[in-house]
Model the fold of this input.
Amino acid sequence: MHPVAQLTTAIGENVLLTGKCIRELFRPPFEWRLTFTQLELSGIDSWSITFLTAIFTGMVLAMQFAIGLEPFGASMYTGKLVSLGIVRELGPVLTALLVGGRVGSGYTAEIGSMNVTEQVDAIRALGADPVRKLVLPRVVTMVIALPLLTTMADLVGCFGGAFITMYEVDVTFRFVYEQMTETIEIHDLMHGIMKSVFFGYFIAIIGCWNGLKTAGGTEGVGIATTRTVVYISITILVSDFILTRLFLAIYG
Done:
């Protein structure tokens, strides 16, 4: 199949899957137990990788800015640049990429294994909807969990950046803290949080879609899992540009 036709088909199938999720979302009863289970597995268990990524990103960013701005006599503004870069871009994007690789591939592997072993067909045979049982709880989970993880990444990243700024620029924590709080406004926070809502949706829907399309036994599961990571990464990076342009037009 031609790459353009393949892309169009993939987008169409994901839109249809999204429509089914929205339909099932408003049909009681809601699958609370499955959603809470996924929230623990996908959200809470992802805090460690988010924490480590955020703190070292903030530290490296502060080090680079402090050294790079020193010849221009502007190293005192390191805290401002670090906080703005993390809150607007690096916090949501890096969190989405890492959590997407971990969680999205897990969704594909789990649902794909069920698909090749005909467990998904068994769900249909019992009169249940696989979208309701397998897809919807995961989509809801990621739409809720990723903004929370992004918020944590913003805080931890700014703290790591402040620590290195104190060391490299020789300023007090209060000075860096005041710089960061004066620079970051509510619309800056909303940039990252709103992006992470979309990123969470993309991670879940792509992971589940690839899982439901998996075929070819265990080898097919491995191929689908790899494809999911690639699709999620590309989607996050492309959508980040589009969402950034959109939010800048709205909020400035």
Q: What stands out?
A: The radius of gyration is 21 Å. Residues 130-169 form the longest helix (40 residues). The chain has a mean pLDDT of 89.
